[in-house]
Design a protein that fits this description.
Elements lengths: L11 E9 L22 E2 L20 E2 L7 E4 L2 E9 L15 E6 L18 E10 L6 E6 L11 H5 L28 H12 L14 E7 L3 H7 L13
Parallel strand pairs: 1-8, 5-7
Antiparallel strand pairs: 1-9, 2-3, 4-5, 5-8, 6-7, 6-9
Length: 249
C-alpha cells in the first residue's frame, strides 16, 4: 500500500542515504529557518566555540561560521547511533526544505540495494540511526532522503571550508582525496584532525562502510519523524516547536 506521509505515525520506505562532511555552516543555523526554538548551533572556525551570531558568514564563503566538530555520529550501543544530517529535498518522500530544520527522524537500515551495487552491509541491516536535520540539500531528486554528517565521507562541492577551519590540513585530508565517497579504508581516518577522527572511524566500525562486497555503500532506510532526543538537542541547541506531537524514542 501507499506509504503514509511524514507527520503520521507511519514509516516512509524505499529511500537511500549518503554521507558528507564539508565543515560549512549548516543552513539551519541562519535565522528564521523552519519553526524552531532557535537557529541551529554553528561554531567559530578558529576557536571551536559555539557562535552566538546566527548571521555569521560560513567558513566555506570566507567567514568564520563552521560545522561544530561534535556533530559527528555517536554510537549509543551496537544497534543505535545518534547524529545529524542534511535533508535531501526535492524527492517524493516528503522532505521539503527549511521546514525540516530541527526535525528528528528515526532511520532503520534495510537490506535493499541499488540493483547490482551497494546498500547496507548485513551487519547494519535492522540497526537504527536517530538524526536531527541541521542542513538542507537542494542538489538532489528522487528517492535520496538524507545526507548523513560523517567526517571523512566526502566534502562534495565545498572543498575550502575544512582546510580553513583546521589549519595545517589540506582539503584532501578530510576525505582521502575523494570528494564524493570519501575515505575507503579506516586507516585513512588518521589524516583527519583529531577532533573528527572518531566520527570517521565510526563509518567503518559501526556503519561497515565498504567492509565486504562493496557494502555498506549509500544504504537504504525506512524512516519516520520522532521527538528529538535530548542527546541531540543538547548538542545542536534547537528543537522544533511541534516536537511534542511526535513519538518519543
Amino acid at each position: 500500500g501507499r506509504t503514509p506521509p511524514i507527520g503520521t505515525a507511519g514509516w516512509q520506505t524505499g529511500t537511500w542515504t549518503t554521507g558528507y562532511w564539508d565543515c560549512c555552516k549548516p543552513s539551519c543555523s541562519w535565522p528564521n529557518k523552519g519553526s524552531t526554538t532557535a537557529p541551529a548551533r554553528s561554531c567559530d572556525a578558529a576557536s571551536g566555540e559555539v557562535l552566538l551570531d546566527p548571521n555569521a558568514r560560513s567558513v566555506c564563503d570566507g567567514g568564520n561560521s563552521a560545522m561544530c566538530a561534535n556533530h559527528a555520529p555517536v554510537p549509543v550501543n551496537a544497534s543505535l547511533t545518534m547524529g545529524f544530517a542534511a535533508a535531501a529535498v526535492g524527492g517524493g518522500h516528503g522532505l521539503d526544505g527549511d521546514l525540516n530544520c530541527g526535525q528528528c527522524f528515526e532511520l532503520r537500515f534495510t537490506a535493499q540495494t541499488h540493483g547490482s551495487w551497494g546498500g547496507a552491509h548485513p551487519s547494519l541491516v535492522g540497526k537504527t540511526m536517530v538524526i536531527q536535520v541541521n542542513n538542507i540539500g537542494y542538489d538532489v531528486t528522487g528517492s535520496h532522503s538524507f545526507d548523513l554528517l560523517i567526517p571523512g565521507a566526502g566534502e562534495g562541492a565545498f572543498t575550502n571550508g575544512c582546510a580553513a577551519q583546521f589549519p595545517g590540513h589540506e582539503d584532501g585530508d578530510f576525505d582521502c582525496d575523494n570528494h564524493y565517497g570519501g575515505c575507503s579504508e579506516r586507516v585513512g581516518c588518521q589524516r583527519l584532525p583529531s577532533e573528527l577522527r572518531s566520527g570517521c572511524e565510526w563509518r567503518f566500525d559501526w556503519y561497515h562502510w565498504l567492509i565486504a562486497e562493496g557494502k555498506t555503500n549509500n544504504p537504504y532506510v525506512d524512516f519516520r519523524r520522532v521527538k528529538c532526543p535530548e542527546q541531540l538537542t543538547s548538542i545542536s541547541g534547537f528543537a522544533p516547536l511541534d516536537d511534542d506531537e511526535y513519538p518519543a524514542l
